[in-house]
Amino acid sequence: MSTLHFESMKKLLFIFYIGFINMLFAQKPCETNPKYTEFDFWIGDWTVYNQQHTIAGYSKISKILENCVILEEWTSATTLKNGMHYSGKSYNTFDINSGEWQQCWVDNVGGSTEFLHGKYENKALVFTTDSFKKDTINSAKRRLTFFNLEKDKVRQLGEISLDNGKTWKTEYDLEYRKNTSYTETIVTQMFEKLTQSYNSDNIDNLTNNYSEKGIIKGYTTEIIGKENIHKYWVDLKEKLGGNWKLNAEKITEHDKLIWVQGTSVITDLKNNIHKVNFTLILIQENNTWKIFQDTYW
Description:
This protein has about 300 residues and is an alpha+beta fold. Helix content is about 20%, strand content about 50%.
């Protein structure tokens, strides 16, 4: 092989190698590995309440470093003796080598805690520390559990054990309640009215959520006007009965309109499930938000 040909081959291999490395980094492993999404239920802006139903603090949870780390930014509602608010941050990530979640907590009074073991099971992420010296006599372990209660609530339970994990004592028990935007509040309240009206056979109240010139569109359906919409829902309730649930998956506001995408599920009296996707367009009519167009498929 000539020297010129050999040098050309080396250049091609180098270019291939660089391209391969770039491809690996472009994949962003923390965005493609589902393990890194197990703790996503904690992401959001939260007001946090204690067991006395008073505000304990505020927490902002976000993803950083190419979605590899979940960052907690905590501020207590009450002040310390020196007048400042207790605050801290935690860094949470899935360790691909150990196959466990880990959390490192640091605060503004010089404290820190390392939870080196964590697993997500049964809709809860449970962290534990290794044994540490609590005082000159006792060793201890801490356990921190995050319960995924529902879409907008998370329970955080902090516990300590002085007998190597045989028994646990509660240190704090908090409930995170997600702060919602104005449009999310409007949609949530409307969905509650719609489903409660259907489930309690109050079709008049259900229909009042539609505009006077409202439209319902389906595969083979186009219903226009509030009177016809009322008849549609009366017929549907008589046909299916059962229980109705709505889930909003995306809410956007544009040009004085609110657009809502989601799923509708009716479980009829025979336990058959009727599920459709929908898009709603809400408008303001007499200073009240109403459904102008209801499209389902």
